[in-house]
Amino acid sequence: MSKHVLYPLLLLLLLLDLGYSFHQHYHVALDGDMAGIILPSEWYQPVLNDPFGLQVLLKGDRYAAPNRFFAHWTMSHYFKATPFLFQRFISPIDSIYATAALAKTLIQLFLIWLLASYISGKGNPFRREFLVAAVLITPLFQTSGYNSLMGIIDKSITYNFFFALPLGLLLLFFLPFFRSQIQEQKQTFRPAQIGLLFLLAIVLSFNGPLIPGIVLIVCPSLILYQWRRKELSRPLLFTFLFISALSLYSFFIGLHNAENFAHTISLKERYLLVPKGLFSLFTLKLGPPLLLSMVMGNLFLLSRFKEDPVAQKILRVAKWIGLFAIVYILLLPLGGYREYRPNIVRRDTLMPLFLCLFFLYGWSAYFLIYHLQPRLKKWYLGVLAGFLFLFTVADEPIFTQNTCERQGLEVLSRSTEAIVRLPVDCPVLSWVPIADPRDSEWNAQLLEYWGVTKGKKLYYQE
Asked: For residues 121 and 125, what is the distance between their CA atoms, to the nearest angstrom?
């Protein structure tokens, strides 16, 4: 197949995959945190009133999510505006699912673009290098299949605003430094670009639960490493010190998160749960161990390229990622305990490590495709095709996952009662079925705001 045919075909495959992903996301049910964050509820209002947690610092206040302002603000404003754009063409109920699907698809596209840019060194989606890199990592983004164990785009729309999107922004922050330090591309850090990086540092430091911890592991380590090698540049020093200082402050005010005090077990017990969580994650389904095996196999093949500087660079980065993974996992129990995350380790808390695995697999595979000897390359491409095919077919279509919830919303939209008994036994804009109408207060307000109901309609299920 000629290159003139191959690369348009790769682009078409990527567009089809994004369309398929939107279809998948459109048929996923809503989650139980949406109303409280979007309106917001009284529980989350304080964080929107105090973006930088000054009440925690100055008065010792304790409230929910004090260091996550930008995640709350972004999700709230997005869901207050976007459904009404869709309602010009579709029903209010459909507009909610379309709004959630659009956000998930755009975040997925953003992450694919970032990873492909890191892997290929090219950010132009029409360059063949970029397309090859994007095709290598796109099947790893699972909506069904292995989503419960290694999903980056979570089925819960809320989690995407608090985990996947901030991690994407962090990758964007590191991208120019990766290009200049690792890929040795000439980067001109003009004042305007430095200013944008400082602004992004502020947003990142108060945006999601994982970012401060990651920054405090990575940035001081890289400053020290570059200083010892006498390669420390001023842009890296100033921006990394700035985001590290903000992250340290964010981490401090995060210790006053009221959500951390609802359920707790001892620190020793939390550490004892970590091996159990890791074992479950890598033994329940084929996806995670297969990805890890592919990475290890690629690194083994790379070790044969002893004279190639790029191969050796990939191996060195892999060692740094391995060290980061160890430190990161050891620090996880310090983040507190949640009943819905009983083993501490789960796909959301390990999302940074899975993104690292995606990147290592993609970067190493990209190198091997272009540098293996023809005979070995033939076998490798066969294995790689099988790997990608398995992940592609594992992501089975979703058609009915939100059907029951839709039926409940339809009943609410047609009802004339102030309190409605729903004839469905599935959660409706909730984590669990609602037995007490008073527990639907915030959901009822949000559904009225979106125009799903005429007037506030509390509801319950039996």
From this structure: 11
Alpha helices per DSSP H over 63-190: 69-86, 92-120, 128-137, 147-150, 157-159, 165-181
pLDDT tops 90 at residue 416? yes
Residue whose pair of structure tokens reads 């964007």 in the numeric block: 172
Span 187-241, pLDDT tens digits: 778 888 999 999 999 999 999 889 999 999 999 999 999 999 888 999 999 999 9
**What is the tally of structural domains in the chain?**
2
Q: Do 374 and 434 fall within a single domain?
A: no
Does residue 411 sit in the same domain as residue 368? no
Each residue of 285-317: pLDDT tens digit? 999 999 999 999 999 999 999 999 999 999 999
Give the position of tokens 């804009």: 429
Q: Let me know: does 77 contact 48? Beta carbons within 8 Å.
A: no
Are 53 and 258 within 8 A, CB to CB? no
Joined together, the tokens standing for residue 267 give 């620190």
Q: Compute the distance between CA of residue 422 and CA of residue 15 in angstroms, rounded to an integer.
A: 39
Q: How far apart are the first and last CA of the chain?
A: 60
Q: Is the pTM of this model over 0.85?
A: yes
Pair 247, 374 in one domain = yes
Host domain of residue 92: 3-394
> What's the average model confidence in pLDDT over 174-189?
86
Tokens 């007490």 -> residue: 436
CA distances from 319 to 240, 296, 304, 314, 315 (A): 21, 12, 16, 9, 6
pLDDT, tens only, 277-292: 999 999 999 999 999 9
**How many CA atoms does the CB half-sphere of 320 hold within 13 Å?**
14
The answer to whether 105 touches 27, Cβ cutoff 8 Å, is no
- Distance CA(458)–CA(437), nearest Å, equals 6
CA dist 368 and 75 (Å) reads 40
With tokens 């890289």, the residue in question is 222
Last residue of a domain, one of 376, 394, 412: 394
Residue where a domain stops, chosen among 394, 427, 449: 394
Q: Return d(Cα 279, Cα 296) in angstroms, integer.
A: 18
